[in-house]
Amino acid sequence: MNQLSSPINQIKGVGPKRAETLESLGIHTIYDLLTYYPFRYDDIQEKTLDEIQDQEKVVLKGTVLAEPVVNYYGFKKSRLIFRMMTEQAVINVTFFNQPFLKSKIHASEEIAIYGKWDGKRKALTGMKILATQDEEEDFSPIYHVNKKIKQKTLVDLIRSSWDLYGNDMEENLPTWLLEKYRLMPKKQASYAMHFPDSVEENRLARRRLAFEEFFLFQVKMIQLKNQETRKELGKSILYDVDKLKAFIQTLPFELTTAQKRVVNEICADLRNEAHMHRLLQGDVGSGKTIVAAIALYAVVSVGYQGALMVPTEILAEQHMESLLSLFDPEEVKLALLTSSTKQAKRREILADLASGELDILIGTHSLIQEEVQFSNLGLVITDEQHRFGVNQRKLLREKGDNPDVLFMTATPIPRTLAITAYGEMDVSVIDELPAGRIPIETRWILPKQIDSVLTWMTSQLKAGQQAYVICPLIEESEMLDVKNATEIYEHLQQFFEPNFKVGLLHGKMKAQEKETIMDDFKENKTQILVSTTVIEVGVNVPNASMMMIMDADRFGLAQLHQLRGRVGRGSIASYCILVASPKSDQGKERMKIMTETTDGFVLSEKDLEMRGPGDFFGAKQSGIPEFKVGDMVADAPILETARLEAITLWNQEDWSLQPENQILVKSLKEREKESEFLD
Ligand code: ADP
Ligand code: MG
Questions:
Q1: Could you tell which of 249, 250, 253 is best to mutate to test the pocket of ligand 1, judged by most ligand atoms within 8 Å of the CB?
Q2: In testing the pocket of ligand 1, which one of 283, 284, 286, 567 has its CB within 8 Å of the most ligand atoms?
Q3: In the prediction, which pLDDT does 620 show?
Q4: Could you tell me if 549 and 646 lie in one domain?
Q5: Are 569 and 458 in the same domain?
Q6: Sites in the chain below the pLDDT cut of 70
Q7: pLDDT at 170
């Protein structure tokens, strides 16, 4: 890429020290510097009074009516006040602790002030006086910097580098695409990100660069998907259709229409020569386990092995139980492998697995250890897949000769994220709950109302129901979690025992202990289970119809939804009580949303809106790319357009041979070198 790919120390005036500072900002090459865009702009647009929101930062212009008055109070504290006449009204302007400004403010002179608008008092709290003529000040870019470099230094460096190297900036999108969407040329757009002539030019620049990022990214994703599903990798698993149908007949219920549809999609993938790489999305309680069981049965019916990996031991045990109850033990041999599997048992399992004696292995991360060897692995399923890193998922696949892969997730993923984070997968969605479920009723109460809720609970317990009480998650320390849970446990024991029994479950317990406690709850030996979030995923006790979540505002929407999904699994009306006195508006908003909807997709869209894509999964490992300019939420329409364009391109078989697309072939090659791009 000509001079632009040279390291930054090639720039005149950038010595080793400065180069190091720039490196720490992720700027390695001249190109990186030229495309180190501002993360926001101080959009200090002049506005009129009726356009302004309360607490908004604005520029107001007007005439000073009288000389300002300065009042001093307290130590070094002062308040400078004057009245200003704007086009609409006379307003008060106050500057705190800047008495020296008095010399700059003169009666009957025109003035422009940047400040915060107080809508109630109809007054402006001034932050800065602007020169009335100064146009450049109106829209100033703000860059991420660190202690070692100032905004101004960086801006100067970017400007001088643009003068020197800007001409080397090449177009990287084909002309037909630029014309079709009237996209600004790369060079102009890049420059206008730093030094826009107008707000409009800057907007068009962002649009162009966001399109470029989204488009190149998605072409790349399709390329990956094609690689993942290509024929050479796959195997055609010609399962026994009759056997499979007979198996489905033995299930205790009729599949929902959505379950039937996804079973068909998965089975078609299995038969197909292409390699399966599919994501199965379904809200909590939508019945994914049974779909997994059917897929595993299909594979096993013709002599392949299957693996099911889950994030927690409790969940692994529960899956083991469900599958044991579904399969004929003579026909399908199952085993459970976790970190608490005893050595002797473990050796036996590994031997049976290698000899082909075992058909299905269920387990936690233990499945990806080196000693675990399958004889003929045909299908790998990971449940709650977002809990696993990309590498862990890959390691499991490598246990076999490219087994088909099914990822399952109960976190409904907003469409925009699904496109970007899972763009390389096929997606199946179970968008319907089994018939007869009654929507969970959710209430938000304050801590002081707890005892009246406990009294209400008593009446439900008397009718034979059971309850979960979920303790807050205290991120700093698992010990605190346990202490907290123990205190709540003791309080509830005092309240309910001896009439009802209370159990306690937390992450510090041994696996054996956890299992006993879960079993007691399942068998209704305990009626109330106090638990930390270890029960978050997958636990299934249909007789539990009440859940009380303490300090509910400490949880994100997605997690609250997961937790709540533990009730409402039977045919009785279920309740979720959120106990919280949130301080932040966001916290209050979350509580409110939870009481308004039980639809996981609605919640996930809200969650994404409130937290942004980075925090959505609560983990960096989610595989969501970080875009420099594009914002997956705000720029969703651009993302969608770019996606359709990428698909259309890919569907033209010879696109990469066309002369007009050579520029694209080159850009994609260059992207390959960029380290931050996928893993
Ligand atoms: P999830 O998708 O959250 O993993 P599960 O697979 O645990 O959900 O299913 C939730 C509950 O619904 C289980 O008790 C399961 O037996 C039941 N279930 C699944 N499919 C159906 C169906 N088609 N009709 C009735 N109940 C079903
Ligand atoms: Mg599940």
A1: 253
A2: 286
A3: 40
A4: no
A5: yes
A6: 1, 43-46, 131-139, 229-232, 385-394, 396-397, 415-416, 419-424, 473-482, 536-538, 612-625, 671-679
A7: 92
List own/partner pairs for 472-480 with CB under 8 A and 24 or more apart.
472/550, 472/551, 472/554, 472/555, 473/532, 473/533, 473/554, 473/555, 474/554, 478/507, 478/508, 479/508
Alpha-carbon distance of 403 to 370, in angstroms, equals 17
Strands 110-118 and 123-130, by their bridges, are: antiparallel
Please tell me if the CB atom of residue 326 comes closer than 6 angstroms to any atom of ligand 1.
no
pTM of the model: 0.67
Q: Which residue owns the Cα nearest ligand 1 atom 10? A: 285
Q: What is the whole-number distance in angstroms between the Cα of residue 324 and the centre of ligand 1? A: 15
Count of CB atoms within 10 A of residue 256's CB? 18
* Domain count for the chain: 4
C-alpha to C-alpha distance for 428 and 471, rounded to whole angstroms: 34
Phi first, then psi: give them for residue 28, nearest 5 degrees: -110, -35
List the beta bridge partners of residue 282. 430
What whole-number distance in Å separates Cα of residue 1 and Cα of residue 670?
9
Would 448 be classed as within a structural domain? yes
Cα dist from 546 to 109, 508, 588, whole Å? 68, 25, 22
- Residue 341, ligand 1, Cβ within 6 A: no
Whether residue 284 has its Cβ less than 6 Å from ligand 1? yes
CATH number at residue 336: 3.40.50.300
The pLDDT of residue 147 is: 85
Closest to 667 in 3D by CA, of 216, 222, 223: 216
The answer to whether residue 372 is domain-embedded is: yes
Find residue 380's DSSP bridge partners: 307, 405
Distance CA 509, CA 512 (A): 8
Range of the domain at 502: 441-597
Ligand 1 mean position, distance from CA 290 (Å): 7
**Which residues have a Cβ under 8 Å from the Cβ of 476 and sit 6 or more positions away?**
none
Read off the pLDDT of residues 480-538 as tens digits, 9 standing for 90 and up: 666 788 889 999 999 999 999 999 998 788 888 888 999 999 999 999 999 987 776 56
How many Cβ atoms from other residues are within 10 Å of residue 344's Cβ? 8
Contact 501, 523 (CB under 8 A): no
